Amino acid sequence: LDVYALLGISADAGEKEVTRAYRAKALQHHPDKNRDNPDAARIFHDIKAAYDLLLDAPRRAAYDERRRAQLAKRQRQSALSGQRKRMKSQLERDELAARNRHAEQAARDQHMRAEAARFRDEAARDAGRRDRQMREHVRRADAERAQEAAEAAAASEADELDRSVRVRWDPELSHSRESLARVFSRFGELEEVVVAPVSDAARRRGHSQPASALLVFRSLAAAHALMNVPHEDALTRGFERFWARGAEPQAARDMAETLARASRIDGKAPPAAGRKSGRIPDISAIDLRQIPGSNLAFADF
Predict the structure, then answer these.
(1) pLDDT tens digits, residue range 61-119?
(2) Fewer CB within 10 Å of terminal CB in the chain, N or C?
(3) Count of alpha carbons within 13 angstroms of residue 175, beta-carbon side
(4) Which residues contact 300 (CB under 8 A, 6 or more apart)?
(5) How far apart are CA 88 and CA 238, in angstroms?
């Protein structure tokens, strides 16, 4: 109990000041004036004990000595407590910073591992894609070489008559050698177009007979392509087509079988014979009315 604080005076107060403070406090906390306060008697007793202590010089000196020692001890404890608090706070800050650094390093390591795994996966995918592309390229090259070899072999074995197709059309639809070449050269290169002349006897008799021409292609594949176009095709509608030999040449049948085998290597349906690749050209968009030298006129155009 701090008697100076109890009386509300300083530690160097004299007897008069102590007496004056005692009387004021005693009057304030007298039990007769504080009947509703159960602690009034205890406080009044403490005030009287403090007053007696401070008026007794030897006891006051001993009390002051103890009080100074206690104050110094509390100050040391407070200083030590403050230092401990500062050290504790610093340790907590250092620990938090260390945890943050560890978490950041762990995140960086995880990110680097994920990136390395992604790079490995991308490299593996790229390698697999390149390998597949190379295999596909080799397969297609092999198929194309087989197809070209088949066409070349068939063409080399086919004589001129095997590569020739006879066509007939209504004589009212006049065609010249040049117009026929424009129409049928789309199937392949033509070596010759021979238009059959109308005989004098037929002219004198006035009989109308179909006009005809012989188309000599440079390759058997081109002749085969013309013969395998549907009759209702826009390009060949109005023309009758016949093999010059009267039937499909054996060389054409052999070529078709070889092309079918080559297409199975490529994994696709057998292409129809064409100019070089053996494919039938897209003729659905051709307007025969725009071909110079031809007076073709069909009601369904």
Answers:
(1) 999 999 999 999 988 888 888 888 888 888 989 999 999 999 999 999 999 999 999 99
(2) N
(3) 29
(4) none
(5) 105
